[in-house]
Amino acid sequence: MSSLLNIFLLLAVFTSHRGVTTEAAVEPVTDIYGQRLRTGTKYYILPVFRGRGGGLTMSKAENKTCPKSVIQERFEVSNGMPLTFSPSDKSRIIRVSTDLNFKFSATSIWNLDNVDEKTNQWFIGTCGVEGNPGRTTVGNWFKIDKYEDHYKIVFCPSVCDICKVMCRDIGVYVQDGMRRLGLSDVPLKVMFRRA
């Protein structure tokens, strides 16, 4: 009887935990007007806090692995470049905590670049490949998570069951006056505006 009760309690805990996770995962990401983000629609990613740079864009990087890095514009009046999102599950609505490709243009998919030897920092590049979720593309998938009353971008792909990945927030790393995006303990708090 005791073992049957333990199994029941274990199932109850597991089921209730899954329910919380599933509920959070189905919540849609919304823009500054409360509209749901949609696959294929262009958006600007903007910082929530004013006076700390503008929207996200690309810039040449010293890194030879990927010639362009994802950066934050220096001035808040700059929106950056519009981008689209492609979820791994091909749904039309972008949802919190789902694997996404972030794409500036047809050939500029975000990826976690190799560690920078000068700074020992992991930066975000634009040499990723769209789609094909799995082991070979694990570095190309990011998530949008709730962060206080807005959002943050996270690298924590779940497109590969056998891969061990480091889960970290995406924040800003200032290098030679350039505000590069990379793995960070301090997330960049963001909002989305339709382009």
From TrEMBL:
Annotated Gene3D superfamilies: 2.80.10.50
GO molecular function: endopeptidase inhibitor activity
Coiled-coil segments on the chain, per record: none
Signal keyword on record: yes
Keywords noted in UniProt: Signal
The UniProt record lists the keyword Signal: yes
SMART domains with a match to the protein in the record: STI
Cleavable signal peptide: 1-19
InterPro entries attached to this UniProt entry: Kunitz_inhibitor_STI-like_sf (IPR011065), Prot_inh_Kunz-lg (IPR002160)
Classification via Pfam families: Kunitz_legume
Protein known as: Kunitz trypsin inhibitor 5
Record organism: Raphanus sativus
